[in-house]
Write a structure and sequence with these properties.
The complex is a heterodimer. By secondary structure, chain A is mainly alpha-helical. Chain A has helices spanning about 20-35, 40-55, 60-90, 95-115, 120-160, 165-200, 205-225, 230-265, 275-280, 285-290, 295-315, 330, 345-380, 385-395, 400-425, 445-450, 455-490, 495-510, 510-520, 530-535, 545-575, 580-585, 590-620, 625-630, 635-640, 650-660, 665-685, 690-695; strands spanning about 10, 15. In chain B, about 45% of the residues are buried. Chain B contains 13 helices and no strands. The longest helix of chain B is centred in the N-terminal third of the chain and has 33 residues, at about 20-50. Helices cover about 75% and strands about 0% of the residues of chain B. The chains are: A mainly alpha, B mainly alpha.
């Protein structure tokens, strides 16, 4: 049994009386049934059944049918009338004006027709009001256009009558005027310069005055140049045509938004009351929108359909792949395929296919939801948006999505796909013997790492320990140095702040790879620092060949490099601490140390915490310093095997595994380990950051 | 407090006169500051010295006599691809900066001014994903590059590098720009919208001019990034013709065939000077940008 709401509703929930008397009656009887006792209820039910049985002979339905028929006839005849009208139109009118005239004519006819049926259905009411609006507004727009066009026409005829000799004269006059004004300008500028020399005005005042004078001069010349009729004429035409264009645009915009307003205020009334369209049209985005009467929108969704059925799904099935077999390639990994086929390409194409499928499913769902929403709303009484309204909602609500789209595409291809590849690789046995073809080996790689077995696994824990020690020591050293220096320089009694700040900036400003390489040279056997240490302290340094010395040198070097950044960071924060905090503390008798411990350090730490966390993360993955300084060495094959050196961090170890020795599988496993560790630490850092806590809006 | 010292000079300061221990502390402060300045300047000074020292051959030596000469620069210009490397680096840097600015302008504005589904979650997700070093995808980059370039030869390794740099910076830069735009009053937008500006116009006419310092900073960071990075160029760029400065200069101290440490010093100097100047001139903006990023991020 069908059920209807008593009223129709618009978007903000206003109630509208139904115009369909038949449905109204059904609703009325049903309401009575609810209230009635058993016996009368039975009677009413019978009545209802009768009503539904005689649906076609119900007076309202007959009226409605008559209206529909007459509407059809009317529209047919209107088409003919339109043709006749076009023939009567003035041929000299421009295309745009003609179109508007036709629109106006149709609107007039429609107003006449629909007026009689306003009470029958809301559709007629909408048509009537809409066309009335058009009838009222269009003439103004047309008039405006015609008037503007006639002015332009006039200007064109005027142009022919312009006396060219006069033009020459005017030009001469202009030249004369220009010269005169230039002289005056130069004189004035000269005066200003004199004043400046005498010290009457400042340098800034001088330049500003000169600028103002020059501007004035240009304006004068420009104004004078309009004495030329030719130029005035041209300018007039240009500005007039621009005006026409803009005012027409504005007029149409207002008209459209008024129509949109009507659509929001006049509900729609349907006889069926179940949303079915969305489910039927689910497989083809765009179809549902067409059936809902939203043609503009459907066009967009049809493009989506094209993407899904021409790109997304075929690719996932293996068509149009470079080498792979779509998603299936993820399982087979090119096993048994041609010789040139590479497992890695199969894997990446498989991942791409998965992303395509995800995107396609999302789009399908999105379209489905759109159709369903529109349909449900229509049943409630809310009219579907027309193209004008859709456009403006897209501009408003859709803006953030559309503007994030480029970023999303870049992130998917540059970050998500490669990282997914790495995740999958960590479950495969890609190594030097299995470069072009490899297969799934489950969690073997991880097992090897955590149990410390095998070629690569044995070094893992050693490297991990050093990585952690390095991260903590090097970063903390840099933070301590940088913070201390910023405190010292910020002391109000210290002079030469600018000098110190500039010098302390240098380690950060000079590209790190240069300083690292240079330190590496200076710390080699015969390098400058080694010799200096030898001469000054009698130390025999052999930094490059001694693991402990390399490590200490690395930590000190990172302290040197990293302190700069911390210095600038905390200087910025220190300068922003209000001095009344310190004054208040002094009044309460705080010592310098207490002020430092209770005010300065907490504020600096709190404000820079996420960035400090970032520094730890950065050093955890600081590849450059390790690789450029000593290539991860010195190498101790007895302890570290052939794949890593004693100063290698996980990241440089990964580099050596993947790039230099082609153990991509196990390298990927370590990468995943590193990634998870880093993400966890960063999460702790970001979670507490202000930007996430104090979400505005 | 005495206003007059014994000599009779007026003591003109709103600070208290220093006690003896204070003077010692101040002296110590100066000693620390100056010695750290020396620690910073000495290696840099050595670099400059060796770049101009005609007595150096192939390997850098200390305590050599100094003879001013430009021969290392000559070597750099004539015997290496220095200019090509510089050109590559600048091309990659500029392209990265432009791409980053375009993308981040949109995202930063959208994340700051609009409410939309999945806003917070997506931002957090991207932040976390971006904490993973770009290096993690290196194996895939290699293969992806070879596939795409065989389909479209215009897709060079350098383009790949640009995409990686720009993509890697999206989250952080969005975050920073969002923080900055958050601090701009929405009343400005509202006024502009009442006057009939569209969203893009609001950004172009209102937000962008106000946020210009931060945009400049982001552009600068993205520009400097490729100058500083060594790892990705080293891995992705294979022929010396396509190297960036970092990868190219490293061959001067790593590769036995064209080992020339003084020429490296000269090249390093030439690379460092423009960047150092940029940093020193923009010091103030950099510092304020940093701390703003920190307060917000």
């Amino acid at each position: 049994m069908v059920s209807y709401n008593k009223f129709l509703y618009d978007e903000i929930g206003n109630e509208y009386e139904r115009k369909n008397l038949y449905i109204k009656e059904i609703v009325r009887i049903k309401e009575k049934i609810k209230e009635a006792d058993l016996e009368t209820g039975q009677k009413l039910k019978l009545e209802l059944k009768e009503l539904i049985k005689n649906k076609n002979t119900h007076p309202y339905n007959m009226k409605l049918k008559k209206f529909r028929n007459e509407e059809k006839i009317f529209l047919k005849s209107l088409r003919k009338k339109k043709k006749n009208f076009i023939n009567t139109l003035d041929k000299s009118l421009s295309y745009k004006v003609k179109r508007l005239e036709i629109q106006l004519f149709i609107a007039k006819e429609k107003v006449k027709f629909y007026k009689a049926y306003v009470e029958v259905t809301y559709d007629a009411e909408l048509e009537y009001k809409k066309n009335k609006l058009l009838k009222e507004e269009l003439p103004r727009i047309i008039e405006n256009m015609v008037e503007g066009k006639s002015i332009i026409k006039q200007a064109i005829t005027d142009r022919k009558n312009i006396d060219l000799n006069n033009e020459k004269k005017v030009k001469g006059e202009l030249r004369e005027f220009k010269r005169e004004q230039k002289e005056i300008l130069e004189e004035k500028i000269g005066k200003l310069k004199d004043n400046r020399k005498k010290g009457l005005i400042s340098k800034k005042a001088e330049t500003n005055e000169i600028k103002a004078l020059k501007k004035k001069y240009k304006e004068l010349i420009n104004l004078k140049s309009y004495d030329s009729p030719l130029k005035t004429n041209k300018e007039l035409m240009e500005s007039k045509s621009h005006e026409i264009k803009e005012s027409t645009k504005l007029g149409m915009k207002i008209l459209n938004s008024n129509i949109a307003d009507l659509r929001r205020k006049i509900p729609v009334e349907l006889e069926n009351n179940r949303a079915k369209l969305a489910y039927f049209t689910l497989p083809i985005p765009g179809l549902g929108q067409i059936l809902n009467g939203q043609y503009g929108k459907s066009f967009i969704f049809l493009i989506v359909s094209l993407f899904i059925y021409l790109i997304g799904i075929p690719y996932a099935l293996g068509f149009g792949n470079y080498q792979g077999e779509g998603i299936r390639g993820l399982v087979t990994l090119a096993e048994g395929a041609r010789r040139v086929d590479k497992s890695l390409i199969f894997m990446i194409e498989g991942i791409l296919a998965v992303f395509f499928v995800i995107i396609s499913l999302f789009l399908l769902y999105f379209s489905f939801r759109d159709v369903l929403k529109v349909e449900r709303n229509t049943l409630k009484g809310i009219r579907p948006y027309n193209w004008f309204e859709t456009k403006s909602t897209l501009r408003e609500g859709g803006f953030p999505y559309i503007s994030n789209l480029p970023a999303l595409v870049v992130i998917i291809f540059v970050i998500l796909v490669p990282i997914s590849t790495t995740i999958l690789l960590s479950f495969t046995g890609m190594d030097p013997q299995h470069q072009s073809k490899f297969s799934w080996i489950g969690i073997e790689n991880y097992k090897m790492l955590f149990l410390g077995e095998g070629l690569a696994g044995s070094v893992f824990w050693l490297t991990l320990v050093w990585t952690i020690v390095w991260t903590l020591l090097a970063t903390t050293l840099a933070i301590v140095i940088g913070f201390t220096l910023s405190l010292l320089v910020n002391n109000e009694r210290v002079k030469g702040k600018l000098f110190f700040r500039t010098v302390y900036l240098l380690p950060w400003a000079v590209p790190a790879f240069i300083t690292i390489m240079f330190f590496s040279i200076m710390l080699s056997q015969n390098g400058a620092i080694s010799q200096l240490a030898n001469n000054l302290f009698g130390l025999e340094l052999s930094v490059k060949n001694n693991a402990t010395q390399t490590r200490i040198a690395l930590i000190l070097l990172q302290g040197w490099l990293g302190s700069s950044y911390i210095f600038l960071l905390s200087t910025g924060v220190l300068q922003a601490i209000p001095s009344d905090l310190y004054e208040a503390a002094e009044m309460d008798g705080a010592t310098t140390w207490q002020k430092l411990r209770r005010i300065t350090i907490p504020i600096v730490l709190f404000q820079t915490a996420p960035l400090l966390v970032g520094q730890y993360v950065f050093n955890f993955n600081n590849f450059s310093i390790i690789y450029l300084f000593n290539g991860g060495g010195p190498f101790e094959p007895s302890k570290y095997g052939n794949l890593a050196g004693s100063s290698d961090l996980l990241i440089s170890y990964i580099y050596k595994l993947t790039i230099e020795n082609q153990y991509q599988g196990i390298g990927a496993a370590i990468t995943i380990f590193v990634a998870i560790a880093v993400m966890f630490v960063s999460f702790l850092g970001y979670r507490n950051s202000k930007a996430f806590k104090e979400e505005r809006l | 407090m005495k206003l007059f010292k014994k000599k009779g000079d007026l003591y003109l300061s709103d600070k208290q006169p220093l006690s003896i221990s204070g003077k010692i502390l101040l002296g110590l402060t100066y000693i620390i500051l100056i010695s750290w300045a020396v620690v910073i300047l000495w290696p840099l000074y050595q670099m400059i010295l060796s770049a101009f020292n005609g007595r150096q051959e192939q390997y850098l030596m200390l305590n050599d006599q100094f003879t001013f000469s430009l021969k290392h620069f000559e070597y750099l210009f004539n015997n290496t691809l220095f200019f090509k490397w510089a050109k590559n680096t600048i091309f990659i840097s500029v392209a990265t900066a432009i791409l980053t600015l375009i993308i981040v302008s949109f995202t930063g504005y959208a994340y700051s001014r609009y409410r939309f589904k999945g806003k917070k979650a997506s931002l957090m997700a991207i932040m976390l994903i971006q904490a993973i070093p770009t290096f993690a995808g290196i194996t895939a980059y290699f293969t992806m590059y070879s596939v795409i370039s065989s389909i479209n030869p215009a897709f060079t390794r350098q383009v790949m590098l640009i995409l990686i740099y720009a993509g890697g910076g999206i989250a952080n830069n969005t975050f920073i720009l969002k923080g900055y735009i958050d601090s701009i009053s929405t009343e400005l937008d509202d006024a502009a919208k009442i006057d009939g500006c569209s969203n893009l116009q609001v950004y172009r006419l209102i937000i962008m001019p106000v946020a210009r310092p931060m945009l400049a900073l982001i552009g600068l960071w993205s520009f400097i990034g490729p100058f500083m990075d060594y790892l990705l160029p080293k891995v992705l760029l294979t022929s010396p013709e396509t190297y960036t400065l970092a990868a190219g200069l490293f061959t001067l101290i790593n590769d036995v065939r064209n080992l020339n440490q003084p020429a490296f010093a000269a090249g390093g100097l030439l690379t460092a000077i423009p960047i150092v100047i940029l940093f020193v001139v923009l010091q103030k903006q950099l510092v304020s940008g940093l701390s703003k990023g920190s307060v917000k991020g």
